[in-house]
Amino acid sequence: MYLVDQRVCIPTDPEQFKIVQEALKMGFLHQMISDISGAKYTLFIFIVLGICFTLAFTYLLKWCSKTVIWFIIFIIVVLSIFFGYYSYLQYKAASSMTIGLSPTGYLLQAIIWWCFGLGTIILTICFYKRINLAIAIIKSASDFVTKNVSIVIVPVFSTIATLILTVIFIYIAFIICSTGTPGDKQQQWPFGQLKYTLFEYFSGFYLLFATFWTYALIIGVNSFIIAGSVCVWYWQQGKSGQEHVQPLNSSWKRCFVYHFGSIVLGALLLGLISIFRSFFEYLYRNAEYMRTTDGCQFCFKCCACCIWCFERFLQYLNQNIYVQINMTGDGFFHAAKKGLDIMSNNPSIVMQVVGLGDLINNIARIMITLSISMFFFRSISELPQFLFGGIVINPYNPTLLLAIIVFVIATVFTNIFGVAIESILHLYCIDQEIARAKSGSEDAEMCPAALREFLNDKVFTQQK
Question: How many angstroms separate the CA atoms of 74 and 83, rounded?
């Protein structure tokens, strides 16, 4: 036996090593590495192409955000009508058959689809002005990203820190897992089963909590710096703006000098919720009666859904807290109270803007990943000269790696866009409160041009 770090055992006996090799599918891994190595130059080219596509998407939204959103609404209505008509044809076909399924289900599906399409049309008409406001906020976010290209380095540093810490956490996890004593239960894998003491279980959960907390802290720093840059940029617009202030430079200082403790506290809350959710799932998986009883399964799924919803709400609240802290310099809980007040006073605007922003970001990630991956697959499959002399046996292996990398890149860049949307929305709500308090015909001057017409509309600013 060969010991790695005095903990992980690798058998030197040929028969035992063959069992381990078969269990780990070493041949498949070797083939995957060989295919990736054969397409390494093409992979690099398409990764750069994916970055360019993502940046181009952000730039294009500055001019075509209105077209994109109205096109998405149009597609939703058309698909609702199409699926409703298709379900109605299924209903007619099932009604003409003497045997088979009841046609009532198809008719109900058609009615639901048509009602959904009709509801979309009615809501679009009723909230036409607010949809235009959401478009203006998205356009302003795109304008911020295009005018502050240096903001890209923030998620790049965050991604590098996340990868380094992930390697460290995995190494520590292997050490903790290897400290157990061999058990007496037989398994199909040749590694056996290990028994752990209470201290070792506690060490594992503590490592998991530290991982969640650290990841939440990295995300919090990333969001705080971007939100701080948006705050500075937002009030620089117009005649009275102080354009000599660099948004990114001042945000770094506010983050690490004045308000790092607030970010740590917000990350701690998210880490506690994440470890609670993980512990809850651990209890469910190790309690036989919970997995075999329908009532327990229903209660668990309801509780898991509530925990997930609360975690998502706290993530969004943290984003508003960071904007409020950048605006006023308040502490965490005081900023949380103000953030909740702003959200509760503007529920319809928050839901529409955040919903449309998330929809555009998700569509962008999927479309960029699919288009780059499909182009890469066709290139290395049908045009061998794109491999620059390399050999690829299975083109799916490098295509899968490229899809993962491009999706991560698209997620990193679209997250900047998403944080900018939420920050500008929060700042707009604050600006709207200022506009409501103004008397006479005084107009807004220190906001993005796309939002100025809404803030200067006295009737619209009085609406909740």
Answer: 14
